[in-house]
Structures are given as structure tokens and as C-alpha cells.
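Protein 1 of 2
SEQ + STRUCT:
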Amino acid sequence: MSRAAPKSANRRQVFAWCLYDWANSAFPTVIITFVFAAYYTKAVAVDTVTGTADWGYAMSASAFVVAIAGPVFGAIADHSGRRKPWLATFTALCVVASACLWFVRPDPADALWALAVAGFANVCFEICMVFYNAMLPGLVGGARIGRVSGWGWGLGYAGGLACLVVVLFGLVETPTPLFGLAKQGSENIRAAAPMVAVWYAVFSLPLFAFVADTPASGLSPVAALRSGIMELKKTLASLRSYGPITRFLIARMIYTDGINTLFAFGGIYAAGTFGMDFAELITFAIAMNVSAGLGAAAFGWIDDWMGPKKTVMIALAGLIVLGSGLLLVESKDLFWILGVGLGLFVGPAQAASRSMMARLAPPEIATEMFGLYAFSGKATAFLGPALLGAVTLAFDSQRAGMATVVVFFGVGAALLARVPDIPSSR
């Protein structure tokens, strides 16, 4: 369902919308990817291998819930009109759940609590993105959607990095942590969770204060859900007529699962296999995010010159080569070099995928196709963490578990190779 967007939008509203990305990026960066994930596997779980597997299962379960619930809430967003009340509700739930992770002590007795709360918070975070993204078309005209989306993406990278820097120098890499926190009982590490909660809550307020919501459509939730499901069925049926788009979405689903799993378990792998402490993990996270941002910017001209498919293929080749190297090296220095290099190819794989979808989608159904594109990023998000956890347990090895990520990149690249190339000018 499409709605007319205003030709221009108040700059304050645009900035407030983008700032939400700055706010919420602290959660996946600090909680899900690096600090808390590594804290759980190294200090809370019985041992590193078991902790890695259990964290994988928890993230897999939360992703499965999102894959089912996402289209339902997407239908409500598209057909009931108002998004801000739903966004506020799930933002508050994610903030509260994040703060509750403070109570996870370095004790295996708290393992189940940690997994349940982190998984619940991750579900709320992902549902937030459904409503947040749905606000963009009503915020700006079609000619500016990509630009404003990019500003939000950029602020998200910056926000995650900024929060990591605060955690690094204010809590971890300091003899005197903020607020008089003690290192005994890992108080300084656990405090990263409520810090993320405050960060998320404070910087999300401008969106709720300044961004106008769309008017209610008058449809009841049941009617909105029914209409959304009918439209989803219609989109899926029409997709059969577009073979290249179908193949691209399947390929993207696979390699995106690999990228998401890489970010979710990169810190865990670095901590367990290379013995990185929390200060090193945060520094490594900052370096990888910087390299990913630089890679996305540097490969933009390649996308325009060679086309998005070739850009994604180059990025996947880089991920496979450097990812394989990370599984073989024993030196921490080499791990650093290859890891930062790996980041250079993550951003281009994501940015050029969106560009490719924009060129493949027929203009008359572009909105529906991008809805399906968003769904494809979540539909199998549970598969990567689950497979990584199972292989880690089966071989009693983090290296073996992380090898599954390279497999996802390889399969995704093989499927993408079957998609016809498209001119970069389209």
C-alpha cells in the first residue's frame, strides 16, 4: 500500500528521524555483538564453547520470532497508519530489557536469565526497526529517500562507535571506572548494559518529539492484519513472474545471514580463540566499524562504474578470502590485520545489495519489492546462529563454528552468480 509523501520535509524532523539510528545502534554494537556477548561467554557461561553455543541458540530463537512477527507488525504499520505508539512501546521494552542485563552476575546461575533477557531485547529491537523504517516514505519525497536513509545509516555507524568509545574509556580501559563502579564482580563490564539503555532512551526522544506520525487509517488491527496478509500473498504471487529478483533475494538472504552471524559472533570468537580482553574487543569493534564505513564509501564509485552485482561479488570474494584466513591464523596480530581488512568488504556487500534491488525492481511495484527485500533479511536470520552453535558443539571448536559463516558467503555468491547482470546506469 502506498501513500503520497510530501515534497519536502522539515529538516528538524529528518534529523530527529536519523538520530534514532544513532540511538539504537548502541544496542546491537555493545550488547549483541561485542561487550555483553563476550562477557556472557567468558564470565557467565560454564565454559567458552558452551557459552558460544547457548548464545547462538538464544539469538536464533529471537530471530525466528522476528521472522514470524515482523510481517504481522509490518501489515499493521502499512494499513493502520500510526507507527509512533508502536515504536515507542517496543523502544521502551528494549530499553528496560537492556537495563536489566546489569543484574547478570559472572555466575553460571545467571546464564538462563541472561539469555532470556538478551533474546527478548533483541526481538524488541528488530520490531522497532519495522516501524522506524516504515516512517521513512512519509517523511520525505521519493527523490530523497535514499539520501535520508543513508544519513540515518551513517549516524548509526557513528552512534555505535561513539557508545563503544564511552564504554572503552569510561568503564573498561580505565583504573577508575565511572560512577565509582568496581571491577570486582565485573561491575564495570555489566554497566555497559544500562549505559546502552540510557543512550537509546535519550537519543530516541527527538523522534517522538518532532517527527510527525501518519494519521490513523480507521482500520481496526484485525482489518489491517487481514489487508496486509492479502497484499503479501499478492506480492509473493507476482514475484514468480520475476525470476532474477527471486534468485537475487534468495542469494541475498543467504549471504546476509552470514554477515549478520559474523557480527553477532565476531567478538565471541576473538575473545575465546585469541584471548582478547574486553578493552581489546571494544577497540577491535571500533576498528571494524570504521573500516566497514570506509569500505561502503570507497566502493560507491565501483557500484556506479561496474554495477551492483559485480560490486557485491567482489565484496563476497573479499569476505571469503579474508574470512578463511581468520580461521587459519594463530597470531593475534594477523587476526587484527585480517579482521580490519574484512570490515572493508562488509559495507559494500550491504550497500550494493540495496542498490541492486533498486535497479532490479520494476518501478510500478518497487515499494512491494522493497518490503519483500526487508523480509528476506529476517526470514532465515535464525539459521546462521543455530548452525554455528551446533557445529561449535559438534566439533568442540569455535573455529569450526565460525567456518559456517564462510560457507554462507560462498553459497550466496554462487546463487548470485546466476542472477543476470544489470547496467549500473539503470
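Protein 2 of 2
SEQ + STRUCT:
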Amino acid sequence: MRGFAALVAGFVIMVVLLVAGAAFLAVYLHSQGSVESAQRFSAEVQHLQKSAHITILHYEWNAEVNYLYLEAVNDGTVPIRLHDIVLYVNHVYLGRCGEINCVDATENNVLSPGEHLYVATPLDHDAASVTVSAGYTSTLQRNWVPGCPHRRVILVYNGTNSSFSDYQVPIDINDPDILASDANRIALALSDGTTLAPFWVEYWGSSGGRIWVKTPIPANGRVNIYLYYDCNTARTYSPADVFLADINGLIASYFMDENAGTVVHDSSGNAYDGNFVGAAIGWATGYWGSAVEMNNNSNTNESYVNIAPSAQFNTGNTMTILSWVYWVPKNTSSTSYLVTDSTVFAKYQDFEFILDSGGYGWFAFYDADTGDWESNSSYPLYAPSDSWHFVALSFDRPEISFFFDGNVTVKKLDGSIGASDGNEYIGIGISGQEPFNGRVDELAVFSVPISTDLLDLIYRNRGYATPYYPGHFLVRRYTQPPPTVYVSTVAESYVRGS
């Protein structure tokens, strides 16, 4: 009996253990599944939040038919399913795409990066704010510049790690509806829709226009700008309101971004274009964009850019030459300065700006007062070879200032520069001597001296010149690559209650 009782007790204990073990296993498996599901859900949400992004470009409530019209773009890096996109009006849930009329660019129920979303849905009241949610949330408030009946949203994206509080953004306009407006009847507003931003109209006509606007841009981020047109108030700004500096006295400016052909175009408005001479000259990567490359390893190559003669280059007692250069030592054993030196810019029989064999800058010119050649000896400032450097000289008789990569030295060099009728050259000296070996980019020549502060501003930013503003050199912020600009193709109009 005692043995039977023990057997029964053992059986009961075994059953209890089996049941407990099964329950534990079930709980364990269930908990693992929950953890795994939670991890998957968390990972999906995290991925969505990191990659998905929609920006509202414009919306409009039509008061006559009580309809909301909205345009947005997927400017993230992954496709977004339309039924994941949620629309709120005045912070009230309106519906998901599918419940409301959402159409994407390909109508495949997926909004790919760069594609547009269009929404047209009934609404019985004006929308003070609209929110589209897809991972990140984008909200657009309806604020308006008074007296302007129409506007377009401009999306500016900065893909660099640098942020700016006053970036000069060029906006190219090709839409005939906008171009039909008087250029003085437009306005630019910042992201709140009402804070006016300084702008300058470079050119405007039926075939196209370009506007420069000064705006903050975030690092690796987007900003909306609003272009209003057909306004009843004229607004005009000067380039000095938009750019960092406006320098008068520009004779010629060569940004050398053609990267093809055999002509270097002058952007100053004076049309002093240059032509390639010789076989050892072509295009290469520049400090900004492309550059002219001259492979003059000896004094016999003599490949350079030739510019037709002009009396405007006869500057007398004042001038400035500036450029980005990447000079390379010549492959020669000769010690003659005629062979080893490299000329940046010269005017036949009048003057030349040279980097000697050690990279030291010096200036030589024909003195019209004495009939002799004047020149300075090598200075302590220099530009090492095989890398880009900003070099400039500014002559204001009798002082000559050399500016290399933010450093400056000043010497005296009396005399008046001669005034022959000879050609101008990029990359070779006054009599076919000292051909340049390396690359030249962003070269400009002025009839006036430029202060050290302004040269430093150009060095740390970038210049701009245009035939639509002849004789002027503008200084602007610049990132590489520059921001991308998208102008909405749909007009937003001012309506009742907005």
C-alpha cells in the first residue's frame, strides 16, 4: 500500500512537472515571439523615421466648391506606401490616402523618392494648417503677403554639412505665368510665408528669368521659400542687399566652367573672351567646377589663353588680379627664371603677374614714367606646388599688396604701368616667356585696387559676375555641391479666409 501511494505521488509530481514545463515553454515561446515582433516593429518604425519624409509644396482651399487641393513631394530616400500617408487639417484627422483622393506620379500605390502626391478632397472650411504624416511630419501654415494674389512654393535642399544664415540662392524661372508678371511686382518670403527676403532680379523676360534670394539654409536640410507675383506693390532690391559684397571696376572675369571647347568666356559684360593657343592646353577639374590646364613643362610648349587687345586693360596706377591656381614645377634642369617661372596673367609689353620656381609671387611692369621695367623681388609669402591656392595682387601706386591664402604682404613699387595696344594672356608672359604649368581657375582683372578685407571675403566665399550687371563682381556664399532648387509647377492663389 505504501508502495502504491508512493507510485501515485510520483506520477502526480511528474504530471505537475510536465504541465508546468509545458506552460513555461509556452510562456517562453510567446514572450520570444513578442520580443521579436516588438523588435521588428521598432526596427520598421525606426527605418521609416530615418528614411521617409514628405514636404508639402502647396495647398489651396477653393471656397466656391469647398475642396482642398494639396501638392507634396517624397524628398526622403525610400518609397512610401500611399496608405501610410495620413492627412490632418487644423490638427484634425482627415484620413489616409485611399480614404481620400490621393494620386501619385506613377499611380502604383507607392510614392517613390522625388515623386509628387496630389490630393483633392472635399472640405467645408478653410484650412489654417495642413499636416501630412509619413514617418516625419511636414506642416504648412497658411500665411500670406498682402497685396499678392499668387505664389509658388520653392523647395531648397542643402546636402552639405554646412549651414548658413545668409545664403544667396539662384532661382531660375521658366514658367510663362510667372514671367508674365512685372519683375518689380514680385516678392520673396521666407519659410513662414510672410517674412520678406531680400532678392535681386538678374534678368527677366518671356524666355526666362533668374532671381537671387538671400535666405537661411540648414545643414543637410530643406527650406521652403515663397515666390509671390502680380503683387500690387513694387519691390526692388540692389545686389548689395543680397550679396556679401558688390565690387565695381571689373574688366574681365573668367570662371572657366565651360569644361569643353577652346574658348574661355568673359562674364564681366565686356566680352573679352579668350581662345586656346597651342596643343598642351585643355580642361581639368578646377577649384570650383572646371579649370584650364596648361602642360608647359619647358619654355618651348607655350600653350596659353589669348585675349584680344583692349585699351580697358591699360589701368595706369591702379589694378587688381586674382585667381585660384594649382601650379606644378616644371620638368627641367635649367635654372633660368624664364624657363621655371609660371605667369598667371600678363599684358603684352606692359605687365605680368608671376609665380617663380619656388611659388613666390612677383609683379613686373613697364614704367611709362622712366621707360624702364620695374619689378619686386620674391616675397616671404608663397603658394606651395601641387595644391590649390588663392593668389592676388592689388596695385595702388606706390603700394603693391600680395595676398596668398589669407596672408598678405605690402611693398612699394613706384611708377605708372605702360599702355601698349598688345594682347592679354592667361598662362604666358609678356614676350612668350614663363609659360604656366598647371591649372588656372576663377581669374578676374580689375581697374581698381581691392582691399585686403575684400580679398579675404572672396577667398573664403566665391565670386560671381554676369553680363546683365556689367563691370561688377559680386561675392556670394557657396557650397559644393550647391543647393538644389525645385519650383512648384502649381500656382497657389489667395482665397477667402486665408
